[in-house]
Design a protein that fits this description.
The protein is of the alpha+beta class. Among the domains are: about 1-55, Uridine Diphospho-n-acetylenolpyruvylglucosamine Reductase, domain 2, CATH 3.30.43.10; about 170-265, CO dehydrogenase flavoprotein, C-terminal domain (Enolase-like, domain 1, 2-Layer Sandwich), CATH 3.30.390. About 30% of the residues lie in helices and about 25% in strands. The strands form four sheets. The protein has a five-stranded antiparallel β-sheet. A four-stranded antiparallel β-sheet has the order 11-12-13-14, with helices on both faces.
């Protein structure tokens, strides 16, 4: 690893000031992406600003159907939250199957969405739940937040502080995990709420997470796996790599969508 200066922020404002003080500073939330890339010398920040221990970034709040999750909340905490399980068990199930126990206890929801890995699980949930991303400067709808592969609408020095959403009436997430990394080769989150039915797809799209309007329209007419039988997922928009071809991933999207709808019931 390259030499770097480590800072532990005590508040969001202090972390923002530390970021602003260097053109090459990076935030450290759970470290599940930054630390490995630094070890491989793919990243060499002059300063690392650790925000994992900032109290105002932690915690889960459920008020009626309104769910708010602090950015520094770990995947394990989301998975084990009885409050979230009461209103959106699908999100607990998603978090419970991210990586392995070490990843779930170190990785954070804010770090995951800010990194926007194309195979990460949370982006599909954020899009399907029509979530709002809160930062130290503004709020951004999930539909506008995820821009492309490893790219978000965050400005330089902007820090994700929380995510919030209205609990759906029914929802489920199903993914086909890479057997080694547990990343999604295709993951589909289906949610039915006040705004209708939304389908978020991760792990498969060549531009990262996306919504499937065709599936949403079909499920609005008939919320059942059979409603997706006539849907043809276009391979042209799918990722292709050593783990699976575009055609393979297109098929996985449909299979995972059917399973998610069946699970949501």
């Amino acid at each position: 690893m390259y030499e770097t200066n480590y800072h532990r922020g005590s508040s969001v404002s202090e972390a923002a000031s530390l970021l602003a003080g260097s053109d090459e500073a990076k935030l450290l939330a759970g470290g599940q992406t930054l630390i490995p890339t630094m070890k491989q010398r793919l990243a060499a920040p002059s300063d690392v600003v650790d925000i994992r221990h900032i109290a105002e970034l932690k915690g889960i709040s459920v008020s009626g159907s309104k769910v708010t999750i602090g950015a520094a909340t770990s995947h394990a905490e989301v998975a084990q939250s009885a409050d979230i399980a009461n209103v959106c068990p699908a999100l607990c199930g998603l978090a419970a199957h991210i990586g392995d126990p070490h990843v779930r206890h170190m990785g954070t929801i804010g770090g995951s969405i800010a990194n926007n890995d194309p195979a990460a699980d949370y982006p599909a949930a954020m899009v399907a739940l029509d979530a709002t991303i809160h930062t130290n400067k503004r709020t951004i709808s999930a539909s506008d937040f995820f821009v492309g592969l490893f790219e978000t609408a965050l400005d330089e020095g902007e820090i994700v502080t929380a995510v919030s959403f209205d609990a759906p009436s029914k929802a489920a997430y199903q993914k086909f995990p890479n057997p080694a990394s547990r990343y999604a080769m295709a993951g589909v989150f289906v949610a039915q709420g006040n705004g209708g039915i939304r389908v978020g797809v991760t792990g498969a799209g060549s531009e990262g997470v996306f919504r499937s309007s065709e599936m949403e329209e079909a499920l609005a007419a008939n919320f059942s796996p059979a409603a997706l039988d006539a849907i043809a997922v276009d391979p042209a928009g799918m990722l292709a790599d050593i783990h699976g071809s575009a055609v393979y991933r297109a098929n996985l999207v449909k299979v995972m969508a059917r399973r998610a709808v069946a699970a949501a019931g």
